[in-house]
Amino acid sequence: MSSNNVVVKIAQPYAVALLELANTKQAIQQINQDIQLIQDILLQSDTLKIFLANPLKTTESKKQVIIATFADQISDNTLSFLMILVDRKRIAMLDVIASKYLELAYQMESLTIANISTSLALNSDQKSLLTDKIKVMTNAKEVKLMISVDPELIGGFTIQIGSKVIDTSIRGQLRQMASHLDVATT
To answer: What is the CATH number of domain 1-107?
Structure first.
């Protein structure tokens, strides 16, 4: 079992607990916003991520940094949840727990998350067409696109929905051709 699978298995109960903490639709929406904000901040600050993952930092110092960073931006429930993660020494997994939580929350709302990697930024028409296609493919009521730009794809895009990956990128096509050539020459 890979270490990533272990981390996801550890993150799952915490994500479920946070989802259960939100007992009304309004509370779920608030925690969703909080978690998205936390993810955005973690994406922008490698320093914060490294600090929270550092086992040599005390729980008290981690709590102080979390309060200073998030207290005026997130709800009390979410802040309390972060304190529990610090106490249980799981704060280093915050980004995985946050992703798992959002995945579960969106599943509950019949919302499908599609992770899109493109070589160039998509315009609104392209996003709309992609959303419509994914709705048809997955029979989902709603689709949320999580778009990232990856110039290494050369051209095209990849779509990941759960464990299913659709690779229309030039890089993917080149890899596929290379693997066929390797098989043909052996």
So the answer is: 1.10.520.20
